[in-house]
Amino acid sequence: MSRHEELVAALQHHFGFDSFKGNQEAIIENVMDGNDSFVLMPTGGGKSLCYQLPSLMMEGMAIVISPLIALMKNQVDAMRNFSEEDGVAHFINSSLSRPEIAAVKEDVLSGKTKLLYLAPESLGKDENVDFLRGVKISFYAVDEAHCISEWGHDFRPEYRMIHEMTERIGRAPIIALTATATPKVQHDIQKNLGMLDAKVFKSSFNRPNLYYEVVPKTDSVEKDLIRYIRSMEGKSGIVYCLSRKEVEDLAETLRVNNITALAYHAGMDSATRTANQDAFLMEKVQVIVATIAFGMGIDKPDVRFVVHFDIPKSLEGYYQETGRAGRDGGEGQCICYYSPKDIERLRKFQIGKPVAEQEIANQLLFETQSYAESPICRRKLLLHYFGEEYEQENCGHCDNCRKQYRMEDESEILSIALETLQQIGEHFKAEHIVDILHGNKTAAVLSYKHYELESFGAADDVDETTLHAILRQAMIGGYIKRDVEAYGDLKITSDGKKFMKKPVRFEVPIEIFDEDNEDMINANMVGTAAADEVLYSILKDIRRKLSKKMDVPPFVIFQDPSLEAMATTYPITIEELQNIPGVGAGKAKRYGDEFLRVIKEYVEENEIIRPEDLRIKTVAKDSTRKISIIQAIDRRVALDDLAESKGMSMEEMLEEIEAIVYSGTKININYFIKEVVDPDELEEIYDYFKNAENDNIKLAMQELGEDYYDELHVRLVRIKFLSELAN
Fold first, then answer.
1. pLDDT of 613 higher than 70
2. What is the 3-state secondary structure (H, E, C) of 465-507?
């Protein structure tokens, strides 16, 4: 029997498959020949089989180093299902009692166990090292190997010690496996594990069945998500959030809106985590809302959608998490909500960490932001990031490729960018080049006197997002490259130098057009607009008359977004009106009657069927926080102290208070204003808002004079003004 026939027979016997996928057979042969192997294979490609099958065929026992208890349990259960003997696979981790660990060791010593899963922390314990020295090790498998690299999306310091631990136990071949690794991360893994000579098996990162889309994250994001999940009725999905609290809150919101959902995060006790994971795998619930602690090694082939409620910290993380969708080759929708504010929030989390760590984190964030904001094919961007070129210009299966572009020749701007890069010594990142071209006098530009360059402000008429897109396209085109060793500094390639000598046409998709009428849109990034322009106009007229009668600016009564929402959802009761953004019980009772009467008449006259499903139930989380803020203000707690006690920035606290006031609740912050705002300044700002056409802070700062007035003070006085006049 040939090696091939032997392997296929073993595959059929142990797992019931008739043939291998992709590189599986070549990888297994390499492992069985006693060689080191580095396996880069997308989620769903069959990585686990690459160490499971040889472990069953080889003499001794394989040690699988795995980062998560959930992953170990899942894989051990799967292996036991394929075998008549439960002892064929075991794990040792903190979830086991002393007697249970003793039983595992008994199976290992008897020769029953062919696969032993350990976390790196367990692997390094002296008692385990001493025990494993007496066992014949067939090979070591390092699963989720990207955890080794600081440039990986889920770096774990204990993973850096694996090589030292395996040397202590006894030398054996190593197979390192990951679904996400840039060339830099791959080198880092091989170097750290002492396997630079390993044979590398690299599968394509392209998952043709996955659809990628980035959606603007607005105030109605929860409503949008609920409507989307309802459209996927009967299909399993994962929603990823960054924080544990957000996971809990969002899962509860989904449940009160009749979507079966459970939470999953590392802060939960292991029994609850396991129960929730099993409920999802057994399809007792449609959705799992989770942090990145969920998903690694979860073998559910029919996840039909993966939603990132928050932008991920890195493209590796994004790729791995979206890889949970469509593992069976069927439908897999990958939706990511994006707001620049989320990127800034993630950057703030890095403050206080070591400089090198901050540099790495910020560079990974920049890559993610570039992906979210780029008009280029999502698939092309992702594959380029992982060192793979996607030859097609249009994949036809992402949001960008489903829109139409007007291609523009940006060779002139690219020439200026390359010349600038050369002049400043190729020691700066893309953000700095954009600042120079756009004419931004940032601290770095001023410090290096780069405002003196001839190219400073040369592209001040081009928006910064477009400039970033040009640089991104130049990277894909091979004119510049990012030096990861230097934390992302841009370098000119040989093709870039040729371009500088003899520029050629360089096309970039800049503007996006609607397929139906060629009206220009900006990748769905348009602001809120009323669905019913006629009703919106009528409501604005009522507001204008009411403002004249009450001698207050129109925005004091209802802001434009509130009127737009009314002209979209057609509220006809006080309760429905209170569900409109910016309308609380106070405003609804004070101003609502006239608006409700007109809307009701309009609905009846035009025989409008109201979209009842747009009314999304919310849980009391926000109201609880708002009540506690109002109570603290009643007790005259200083707002900066209040913000600190809530774990919020002053900016976030002001946003909360503004939301309270806009919803119609009257509050009194005079005690705090007296402490921070000069009486003359207070009077001038207050008078400004009395006569202003709207309450826009940017316009207020321009009118009042940014050099003379502090924005914090202006916002505080606006709160006082709205509370006293509107509520």
1. no
2. HHHHHHHHHHHHCCCEEEEHHHCCEEEECHHHHHHHHCCCCCE
Among 385, 372, 312, which residue's Cα sits nearest to residue 154?
A: 312
CB burial of residue 26 (10 Å; 0-12, 13-18, 19+)? middle
Q: pLDDT band for position 608 (50/70/90)?
A: confident
For residue 172, report the phi and psi dihedrals to the nearest 5 degrees.
Answer: -160, 160
**Mean residue pLDDT across the chain:** 84
Classify strands 480-483 and 489-492 as parallel, antiparallel or unpaired.
antiparallel
- Give Rg (Cα) of the chain: 30
Residues 530-576: tens digit of each pLDDT: 567 788 889 988 888 887 888 777 777 887 778 888 888 888 888 88
N-terminal to C-terminal alpha carbon distance within the chain:
87
Domains of the chain: 3-202 (3.40.50.300), 210-385 (3.40.50.300), 404-521 (1.10.10.10), 533-614 (1.10.150.80), 621-726 (1.10.10.1390)
* Centroid of chain to Cα 376: 18
Three-state DSSP class for 225? helix
| Tokens 């409700």 -> residue | 596
What pLDDT score was predicted for residue 516? 39
Res 622: pLDDT = 54
Residue pair 153/145 in contact (Cβ under 8 Å)? The answer is no
Structure tokens belonging to residue 302? 């029919």
Do 53 and 62 meet the contact criterion of CB atoms below 8 Å apart?
A: no
Q: What span, in angstroms and rounded, lies between the C-alpha atoms of 689 and 692? A: 5
Alpha carbon distance 609, 480 (integer Å): 55
Residues 6+ apart with CB under 8 A from 150: 188, 357, 360
- Identify the CA nearest to 366 among candidates 444, 433, 415, 293: 433
Cα dihedral across residues 430, 436, 438, 444: positive or negative: positive
pTM of the model: 0.57
